[in-house]
Every structure is written in structure tokens, then in C-alpha cells.
Amino acid sequence: MAKKRTRANGDGTIFYNESKKLYTARIKIGRNPETGTAVMKEFSSRDRNTAKEKMRLYLEENPEYNPRADQTALDIYIRKFLYVLKKPIVTSKTLQRYESIYNTHITETETSKNICPFLYQSMKTIQSTQIREWYGELNESDSTLKLIHIIINGAFKLAFEDRVITYNPAQVIKMKKEEVDEEDVTAVLTSKEQKKLIEALDMENPIHRLLYFVMATGLRLGEALPLRWNDFKTIKGQKHVQIKRSLSRVKLEDGTYEDVEKDTKTTASKRVIPLPPKLTDAMESWEHARKDSLIFPNPRNKEESYIFNKTPARHLSKLCEECGVTSVTVRGLRHTYATRHFEAGTPIKTVQKLLGHRKFETTMNIYTHVMPDIKIRDVKNIDKFL
């Protein structure tokens, strides 16, 4: 039998459960969308004050559930932006990037560099000038500032949609466009370097097979790692691969990581692309146990598992050094694939579809920053019209 419930200073209730011999602090955190009944969260302890303290700490970390907290505070809407709006629709990698920005540049944590000075201020009173001044005080790169602004502006947009505010002060702030540094452009291999690298590959090694596959298809690493033999089909006599999943490394609540297969992040990423005949021929000799087995299993494990996503980069770096070719990343192999298409005169729109880019501009950025000889060749073509 439970004793009479008492209010915990207006923040939930506390009662003693005779059967469990525990004090329990309880707070309402929402309603079940199907039944309409209240959803409660409980904090139990043999000591009344400990149970109350557990609840207090939870409400401090989750102010949206605190009836005493200002529900129009910016921090509450940032949390709604991250976990109500974005979490269901973005990849785990993107959400982790947002969380990292929030924890290191906006809220107060052990790793935070800066704290937003108006984080707990009512959004009704925050002005554009305050946001501009804070951005100006931050000694951060343009890319970091852009991510901070995405979160801040997103929170204000959500509050505007909820009619908490009548005006979004962040929408008028224009962020500086990032200038592309030639040194930051992803390096690619020349055709001669690519041939040299391919000759050095050991096709008995699943990791080397993976590198060859990326060079021949232009797939993202996360798209290639979860591929299985039943993802291939023949269309009009030619082998094609169907891209519908991507592998992401997700951080769990206990701080550990787990590889998780998810649907590709955009509609453009879902695609069926043809395989070059040389790749098809090479794959004929790749052994596999079942149609649903991984094409690129981790060679270190007896049970089928994914190749660790950093392993291909280490192998590629070593291969480039041994071959004496330009040091490239796995992403650079993807850009190398695009470069070979550009050199062959493949329409940029076709390359966009092969790469699975949602925006045409993304493909154009690769085109304008690839091999210098392509630029020289294109400029020489102008002679025909002069």
C-alpha cells in the first residue's frame, strides 16, 4: 500500500510504496498518442531526498518536462528541434554532428567551449542583434558557425510554427559563404595512378576488393559495406547493383558504438547503377556462401561481420605510399570515379545520378575542382569558337 502522495515543490509527486519499501518521485512527461493516457517517469530510492534529487536532476537536463521552467526558453526549443523534428528524419551521423555542436558550443557541459548567453531566455525577447553579437564573439570556423546557425534558426522556426513567437530573429542573419580552399579539395588519382594502384591490389583480400569496387562504381563507403550478393541483378544483359541501404556507426546510450544498416538518406541515394564489365568479371571469382551473405565481410572475424569503416582508409593509405601515387582517401576514390567520367565526356547530370547526389551543385563542385588537365582541355576547346 502506498502512502498519501505529496507535491515535490510543484515538480511532480513523491510517495512511499509500502510493498517495495521505496520512495518514488513521479513526473508526467507526456501522453500516449494511442490511448491518451498520461506517460509518467519514476525515480525510486530508499531515501526520500535521494528520489527527489534524481527527479530534480532529470528535470534540469530535460527542462521541457519541468512545469516550473519557462517553456518558451530557447534551450527547450533547441531540444525539440534536435529530438522531435530532426532525429526521425536525419541520419545518426548527422544527429551526432548536431549534438556535438550543441554540447561544445551552445550549452554548458564538461566539453563546452562556449555557452549561448541567451540559451535560457524566453524566445519572445531575443533579438537579432543578440544573435549577431554572439556569433561575432565566437572564434570558430565558417563551417562550425553555419552548423550553430542551423540549430539556432531551426529552433526559432519551430517556435514560430508553434505560434510561441510572431517573428524569427535568426532568419534575417546571413551566414558567410565558405570559400573553397584548393588545398582542401579532395585529392583524386590520375588515370595512370589509378592503373598503378589497381595493379597493386590483392583480390584475395576483401578490403582490397572493396577499394576496387568503390573505384569502379563510385559508391560511398557506407553504401558498399552492407552490400550483399542479392543486391545485384541483370538488366538487359548487364549486371547492376541496387543501392538501398547504408551502414552507419551509431553511438549508444552507454557510450559504445554499433554498426547499423539504415535506408539511404535521400531519394537520390536510392539508385540502380550498371557495373563495368571488368568489375563483373572480377566478381565472378569472389567466393560467397549464400545469396544474402556480405560481399565484403570482415576477414578478421570467423562469423560474418562488417569491415570496420576506418580499416579501408588505412589499407588505402599504405597502398598509395607503396605505389608512389597521390595519397587519396576512400572518398577520393569516389571522386576519382567521377573524374574518369568527366574525362570521358559523360554528361554531368548522368554522373549526378550515378553518384546519388541530391543536388546538381554537389556534382558540379567535384567537376570544377578535379584534374587540372580537364580544365586545360576545356579551355582549349574554346579555340574552336574564336
Briefly summarize what is shown.
With 386 residues, the protein is an alpha+beta fold.
What does this structure look like?
It contains 14 helices and nine strands. A hairpin with a 5-residue loop joins strand 7 and strand 8. The longest helix has 20 residues. It has 386 residues and is of the alpha+beta class. The protein starts with 5 loop residues before the first strand and ends in a 5-residue tail after the last helix. The relative contact order is 0.08. 41% of the residues lie in helices and 14% in strands. Pfam families: Phage_integrase (PF00589).
Note the main attributes of this structure.
single chain, 386 residues, alpha+beta, DNA polymerase, domain 1, 3 domains, 4-stranded antiparallel sheet, 14 helices, 9 strands, DNA recombination, DNA binding, DNA-binding
Number of helix segments?
Answer: 14
Shape: globular
The rounded distance between the terminal residues' Cα atoms is 95 Å
Total strands: the figure is: 9
Order of helices and strands: EEEEHHHHHHHHEEEEEHHHHHH
CATH architecture of the largest domain: Orthogonal Bundle
Strand order of the largest sheet: 1-2-3-4
Binned, the helix content reads 40-55%
CATH class of the largest domain: Mainly Alpha
> What do the pLDDT scores average to?
84
Low-confidence stretches: 180-184
When the domains are counted, the total is: 3
Task: Reconstruct the topology from this structure.
Layout: E1 6-7, E2 13-17, E3 22-31, E4 38-45, H1 48-61, H2 74-86, H3 92-106, H4 128-137, H5 142-161, H6 191-200, H7 206-217, H8 221-224, E5 232-235, E6 238-243, E7 245-251, E8 257-263, E9 271-274, H9 277-283, H10 311-323, H11 330-343, H12 348-355, H13 360-368, H14 372-381
Antiparallel strand pairs: 1-2, 2-3, 3-4, 5-6, 6-9, 7-8
Helix pairs in contact: 2-5, 3-5, 7-10, 7-11, 12-13
